[in-house]
Design brief:
The protein is mostly helical and 173 residues long. It has 2 domains: 36 residues, Glutaredoxin (3-Layer(aba) Sandwich); 110 residues, Glutathione S-transferase Yfyf (Class Pi), Chain A, domain 2, CATH 1.20.1050. Helix content is 64%, strand content 5%. The protein contains 7 helices and 2 strands, in the order αββαααααα. A two-stranded antiparallel sheet has the order 1-2. Helix 3 packs antiparallel against helix 4.
């Protein structure tokens, strides 16, 4: 990811990147927004509902994901540091706060704002990332929301394709 060819696509040498014809994008939110704008079903046609779906996309990457990433960093890269044992509960409490807010907003609805949208896709991505922690399981409606998202055929195809990239094996589906 740090090679010049990849850095030409992503200036920070990270993933994801997306290429379509002569367009190259980086950052998951920008990629999902681009795809959603060009493929029916991910953004509502109603202007207000569309704006709310985009707001949820921003909430996922700007409000929900940062504490989740901090927790991953502490667990994976700082596990040997003396402060990690004290820091993890603080980070998990911060995540619980975000999950509590999300849980209250979702309530007993299937999706965040009526029909499934790119906003749900991005929020579910954060919850999926948190899955090994079990934190979302403390909120039964969020665990059910994540299960609904994971059950979507497109999620299964995308996860299978991503797993194939990491394992070097062809997708099974």
């Amino acid at each position: 990811m740090k090679e010049p060819a990849h850095r030409a696509l992503h200036p920070f040498g990270q993933i994801p990147t997306y290429e379509e014809g002569d367009l190259a994008l980086f950052e998951s939110g920008a990629i999902v927004l681009h795809i959603a704008e060009h493929h029916a079903g991910l953004l509502p046609e109603d202007a207000n509902a569309r704006a709310r779906a985009i707001a949820w996309m921003f909430a996922a990457v700007n409000t929900m994901e940062p504490p989740a990433l901090e927790r991953e960093t502490a667990r994976l890269l700082e596990h040997d540091k003396p402060w990690t044992e004290q820091r993890l509960p603080m980070l998990e409490d911060r995540i619980r706060g975000r999950l509590g807010d999300l849980s209250a907003r979702l309530g007993d609805a299937d999706w965040l704002d009526g029909a499934f949208s790119a906003g749900d896709l991005m929020v579910l991505g954060v919850l999926f990332r948190l899955k090994p922690s079990g934190l979302q399981d403390e909120f039964p409606n969020l665990a059910a929301y994540l299960a609904r998202g994971e059950a979507r055929p497109a999620f299964k195809r995308a996860f299978d394709a991503q797993l194939a990239v990491f394992t070097g094996q062809p997708p099974t589906g």
